Amino acid sequence: MTLQFPKVHTDSLNKVFVSFYIGGKRYRLYNGKRINSTTDPNSYPLDQRLSIAKVLAAEIYSYLLNGGVLLSYRSSNVVIGKLSDIDYIKQALDSKLAGDYSKKYKAMLQFSFECLKQEIGSSKLSVRGLKNILSRYCSGVSHNTLKRHLNVLINEAVSLGLESNPMTEIKSKKSKAVLHKPFDDIATLLEDIKAFNKHLNLCCLLTFGCLLRPHREVRELTWGDFSNDLNYITLSGFRNKSGRNRIVPVPGFIKPYLNPKGLNDNIFTGEQDSRNPDYFKTLWSRYKKQTKLLKQGQTLYSFRHTGAIEIFKRTGSITKLQKAMGHSSINVSLTYLRGLEIAELKEEDMPIIK
Questions:
Q1: Domain contains 299
Q2: Do residues 281 and 244 make contact, with C-beta atoms less than 8 angstroms apart?
Q3: Which domain range does residue 281 map to?
Q4: Residue 347 CA from chain centroid, whole number
Q5: How far apart, in whole angstroms, are the C-alpha atoms of residue 103 and residue 324?
Q6: Has residue 354 got a pLDDT over 70?
Q7: How many CA atoms does the CB half-sphere of 210 hold within 13 Å?
Q8: 112 near 150, Cβ under 8 Å?
């Protein structure tokens, strides 16, 4: 066996790992467990991890050069040799669950793993099996979301020793973008919502007036996100979808509904913890059942889209709209405009006969 000396790398979470190839397959080891070593670079402070990882690389090289076989882990028992496909994927899942990802992302990975486990059991991973899983979802969005998370797990498993990723042979499903129909009489609707629930009313005001996304950006707001004079809201990149730092003005009509308390307190709970991820979704569903003001296609996100229309009508600027919406690309904002039913041509723009 031809073996090159392993290389040391650092991932996006500042964890170090040792990378090497055996038989054309790449392996990544974050610690020495698979060579029966207690060396664990990531248990050390950041400034010491690289030097300890170099020690681990030397241990791995010596171990393999002297005929050692990589150990694999199934539960708490060490076994020699190759694992089943689902065991590799379970290792991949455990690796992802240990990472610094959102609860929602981890829950989706866990769900994806359970789908795989139920479908393939101890059998080999196959295109047919993956298609069986995905065929249960008619919606293009649901199909593609599950496909994306399955692909993450399988790719990670490949790096751990799984032979291949059959997902590369499966195409994504075409899906239509959801259009959130804007509101005509926003003032009357907000008064109706105000009488129904004060938290839902404040959520709608912030979604419309500040163009924040309701289910995370609004729900997780703390008083520390507001400036002292309540004129601005500042969100760091990890708090919004675009990944960029975002500063938005707070319109005057929202300020009477703001009652600042502790900087770390959530604006809806008055405590450091925020409401559950489905809080506003549930409130909106209850409101829909008892109101006669909503039309087909109007959702909680329609407040954000209605606010976007107002900005574009007043400024005529795609760039300002992009910044207000927090989009990472102007192309995304253009897509919103097509869906928001803004007429791009007026009668005076049309051809005439002189």
A1: yes
A2: no
A3: 186-339
A4: 43
A5: 27
A6: no
A7: 30
A8: yes
